[in-house]
Protein backbone atom coordinates (compact mmCIF):
# COMPACT_ATOMS: atom_id res chain seq x y z
CA UNK A 1 0.00 0.00 0.00
CA UNK A 2 1.45 3.36 -1.01
CA UNK A 3 0.30 6.56 0.62
CA UNK A 4 0.84 9.82 -1.21
CA UNK A 5 2.80 12.45 0.70
CA UNK A 6 0.88 14.92 2.82
CA UNK A 7 1.36 18.50 1.79
CA UNK A 8 2.73 20.67 4.56
CA UNK A 9 2.10 24.01 2.87
CA UNK A 10 -1.28 25.71 3.06
CA UNK A 11 -3.76 23.87 0.88
CA UNK A 12 -5.22 25.95 -1.96
CA UNK A 13 -8.98 26.00 -2.10
CA UNK A 14 -10.40 23.66 -4.69
CA UNK A 15 -13.02 25.31 -6.86
CA UNK A 16 -15.62 22.96 -8.25
CA UNK A 17 -17.12 24.15 -11.49
CA UNK A 18 -20.45 22.98 -12.84
CA UNK A 19 -19.05 22.75 -16.35
CA UNK A 20 -16.48 20.23 -17.50
CA UNK A 21 -13.15 21.06 -19.06
CA UNK A 22 -13.12 21.61 -22.80
CA UNK A 23 -11.54 19.04 -25.09
CA UNK A 24 -8.65 21.44 -25.67
CA UNK A 25 -8.07 21.83 -21.92
CA UNK A 26 -8.11 18.05 -21.47
CA UNK A 27 -5.56 17.59 -24.27
CA UNK A 28 -3.31 20.23 -22.73
CA UNK A 29 -3.57 18.59 -19.31
CA UNK A 30 -2.65 15.19 -20.76
CA UNK A 31 0.28 16.68 -22.67
CA UNK A 32 1.68 18.30 -19.52
CA UNK A 33 1.40 15.22 -17.30
CA UNK A 34 4.69 13.48 -16.54
CA UNK A 35 5.21 10.32 -18.59
CA UNK A 36 7.90 8.53 -16.54
CA UNK A 37 8.81 8.11 -12.88
CA UNK A 38 11.86 10.32 -13.49
CA UNK A 39 9.59 13.12 -14.77
CA UNK A 40 7.22 12.80 -11.81
CA UNK A 41 7.95 15.41 -9.12
CA UNK A 42 7.38 14.59 -5.46
CA UNK A 43 6.24 11.38 -3.79
CA UNK A 44 9.87 10.27 -3.39
CA UNK A 45 9.19 7.20 -1.23
CA UNK A 46 6.33 6.03 -3.43
CA UNK A 47 8.45 6.51 -6.57
CA UNK A 48 11.35 4.52 -5.09
CA UNK A 49 9.06 1.64 -4.14
CA UNK A 50 7.26 1.68 -7.48
CA UNK A 51 10.56 1.64 -9.38
CA UNK A 52 11.61 -1.48 -7.46
CA UNK A 53 8.23 -3.17 -7.99
CA UNK A 54 8.25 -2.36 -11.72
CA UNK A 55 11.82 -3.55 -12.22
CA UNK A 56 11.11 -6.82 -10.36
CA UNK A 57 7.95 -7.50 -12.39
CA UNK A 58 9.81 -6.88 -15.64
CA UNK A 59 12.68 -9.19 -14.62
CA UNK A 60 10.22 -11.95 -13.66
CA UNK A 61 8.22 -11.43 -16.85
CA UNK A 62 5.08 -11.23 -14.74
CA UNK A 63 2.35 -8.70 -14.10
CA UNK A 64 2.98 -6.14 -11.40
CA UNK A 65 1.50 -7.16 -8.06
CA UNK A 66 -1.59 -5.26 -6.93
CA UNK A 67 -0.92 -1.69 -5.82
CA UNK A 68 -3.18 0.59 -3.80
CA UNK A 69 -2.66 4.32 -4.29
CA UNK A 70 -4.59 6.48 -1.87
CA UNK A 71 -4.71 10.08 -0.77
CA UNK A 72 -6.71 13.25 -1.30
CA UNK A 73 -7.69 14.38 -4.80
CA UNK A 74 -5.07 16.11 -6.90
CA UNK A 75 -1.92 14.38 -5.64
CA UNK A 76 -1.25 12.34 -8.77
CA UNK A 77 -2.74 8.88 -8.26
CA UNK A 78 -4.15 8.74 -11.80
CA UNK A 79 -0.91 10.10 -13.22
CA UNK A 80 1.04 7.40 -11.36
CA UNK A 81 -1.25 4.72 -12.80
CA UNK A 82 -0.50 5.98 -16.32
CA UNK A 83 3.23 6.07 -15.56
CA UNK A 84 3.20 2.52 -14.15
CA UNK A 85 1.57 1.18 -17.31
CA UNK A 86 3.99 3.09 -19.53
CA UNK A 87 7.05 1.97 -17.54
CA UNK A 88 5.84 -1.64 -17.80
CA UNK A 89 5.10 -1.26 -21.52
CA UNK A 90 1.50 -2.44 -21.13
CA UNK A 91 -1.99 -1.05 -21.62
CA UNK A 92 -3.83 0.90 -18.95
CA UNK A 93 -7.52 0.13 -18.54
CA UNK A 94 -9.25 2.80 -16.48
CA UNK A 95 -12.67 2.85 -14.87
CA UNK A 96 -14.39 4.30 -11.83
CA UNK A 97 -15.94 2.53 -8.85
CA UNK A 98 -19.44 4.01 -9.26
CA UNK A 99 -19.58 2.80 -12.89
CA UNK A 100 -19.24 -0.83 -11.79
CA UNK A 101 -22.80 -1.34 -10.57
CA UNK A 102 -23.01 -5.16 -10.70
CA UNK A 103 -20.53 -7.94 -10.01
CA UNK A 104 -20.86 -8.87 -13.67
CA UNK A 105 -19.49 -5.47 -14.70
CA UNK A 106 -16.29 -6.10 -12.80
CA UNK A 107 -16.07 -9.68 -14.08
CA UNK A 108 -16.44 -8.51 -17.68
CA UNK A 109 -13.74 -5.93 -17.20
CA UNK A 110 -11.33 -8.41 -15.64
CA UNK A 111 -11.86 -11.10 -18.26
CA UNK A 112 -11.19 -8.62 -21.08
CA UNK A 113 -7.78 -7.60 -19.78
CA UNK A 114 -4.77 -8.61 -21.83
CA UNK A 115 -1.96 -10.35 -19.94
CA UNK A 116 -0.03 -7.89 -17.74
CA UNK A 117 -2.44 -4.98 -18.39
CA UNK A 118 -2.84 -2.44 -15.60
CA UNK A 119 -6.38 -1.88 -14.33
CA UNK A 120 -6.92 1.44 -12.57
CA UNK A 121 -10.18 1.76 -10.63
CA UNK A 122 -10.59 5.38 -9.56
CA UNK A 123 -12.81 6.01 -6.54
CA UNK A 124 -12.79 2.31 -5.65
CA UNK A 125 -14.22 3.20 -2.25
CA UNK A 126 -17.46 4.03 -4.07
CA UNK A 127 -17.73 0.55 -5.60
CA UNK A 128 -21.29 -0.77 -5.29
CA UNK A 129 -21.90 -3.44 -2.63
CA UNK A 130 -22.82 -6.03 -5.28
CA UNK A 131 -19.54 -5.43 -7.14
CA UNK A 132 -17.57 -5.77 -3.92
CA UNK A 133 -18.98 -9.27 -3.46
CA UNK A 134 -17.51 -10.49 -6.74
CA UNK A 135 -16.11 -13.96 -6.27
CA UNK A 136 -13.46 -13.88 -8.98
CA UNK A 137 -10.35 -15.60 -7.65
CA UNK A 138 -7.09 -13.67 -7.87
CA UNK A 139 -5.67 -16.38 -10.14
CA UNK A 140 -8.19 -15.34 -12.80
CA UNK A 141 -6.83 -11.79 -12.95
CA UNK A 142 -3.93 -11.55 -15.35
CA UNK A 143 -3.04 -7.92 -14.90
CA UNK A 144 -2.18 -5.44 -12.21
CA UNK A 145 -4.99 -3.78 -10.33
CA UNK A 146 -4.45 -0.26 -9.04
From TrEMBL:
Name the record gives this protein: Holliday junction DNA helicase RuvB
Organism of origin: Neisseria gonorrhoeae
This protein's record includes keyword Hydrolase: yes
The RuvB-like AAA+ ATPase domain, residue ranges: 32-130
CDD domains for this protein: AAA
Keyword ATP-binding assigned: yes
Key words, A-Z: ATP-binding, Helicase, Hydrolase, Nucleotide-binding
InterPro entries per record: DNA_helicase_Holl-junc_RuvB (IPR004605), P-loop_NTPase (IPR027417), RuvB-like_N (IPR008824)
Amino acid sequence: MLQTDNLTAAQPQRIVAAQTASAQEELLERALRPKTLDDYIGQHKAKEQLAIFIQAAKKRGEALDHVLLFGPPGLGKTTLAHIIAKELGVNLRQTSGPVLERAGDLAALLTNLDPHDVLFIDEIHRLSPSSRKSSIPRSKTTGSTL
